[in-house]
């Protein structure tokens, strides 16, 4: 991509001053915690590598991260914000950006991201190739896991933000969620979320963010996580199958996996023996000890067994409710 000239923003009021002028504060019910320190938001923008890219910012809030993304040379920023109280401050920034920013008053869970960048050409889904599109955001805890799962489900379909290719995501998560996302093989921090993220994405923890950098100060710290979809997923099975198998394995995380695998065959629990034989894995291990390779074998065996015995692989409901706790390690 040819690099465009960086257009610096004109001098603007501090974000903290704008919050005071407009009488704005974070709302607890929306899990809002802002990062107003531009030194921190500049680091996030640098990790996101936004220069000359089209950037979708999730939950722009008062616009501090938006400023850093623009200053880092983003070609165009789509700032998506549900809370209408922040629209005046974002529109002020939009005017200053002189055509490099568009504010969308929308729910990111329902927002059609490709529509924000209609002229962007997709990139090949190949190693070493990423499109000129980026996803960035300081995610409210209440929406972080449901939104991440929604994006993960879109990756195999190459839909949503992945219509453009292997779109990188630089996202701030609360500490516990971040630890689950990046947990290494054998770590007790591994969870359903770990498997669903890592089989589809390369993940790296970039920065630890102490709670003191947020306004208001939350009870827990956070981390900046960088995710890039893999050219080829680590598990070769339909998303719905992987989700069901992982859900079963982690349903009884303190037991050897032979027992929870029975949940895949309600009323036909004896089929677990056939599944284990086909998968050829050790079932005397607990959920967090199961490797990605073993999950691949389990999922392939589940598909083969279901096809042989004509067992239905029921897809899960679209827009199904998500219990955040179900995906974390302490359940």
From TrEMBL:
GO BP, one annotated term: transcription initiation at mitochondrial promoter
InterPro entries named in the record: KsgA/Erm (IPR001737), rRNA_Ade_diMease-like_C (IPR023165), rRNA_Ade_methylase_Trfase_N (IPR020598), rRNA_adenine_dimethylase (IPR011530), SAM-dependent_MTases_sf (IPR029063)
Enzyme Commission number(s): 2.1.1.-
SUPFAM superfamilies the UniProt entry points to: S-adenosyl-L-methionine-dependent methyltransferases
Keyword annotations from UniProtKB, A to Z: Methyltransferase, Mitochondrion, RNA-binding, rRNA processing, S-adenosyl-L-methionine, Transcription, Transcription regulation, Transferase, Transit peptide
Entry's localization field: Mitochondrion
A Pfam family assignment: RrnaAD
GO CC terms in record: mitochondrial matrix
Chief localization: mitochondrion
Family note: Belongs to the class I-like SAM-binding methyltransferase superfamily. rRNA adenine N(6)-methyltransferase family.
Keyword Transcription regulation on entry: yes
A Gene Ontology molecular function term of the record: mitochondrial transcription factor activity
Protein name per the record: rRNA adenine N(6)-methyltransferase
Entry keyword annotation includes Transcription: yes
Residue span(s) of domain Ribosomal RNA adenine methylase transferase N-terminal: 40-231
Residue positions binding S-adenosyl-L-methionine: 33, 35, 59, 81, 107, 138
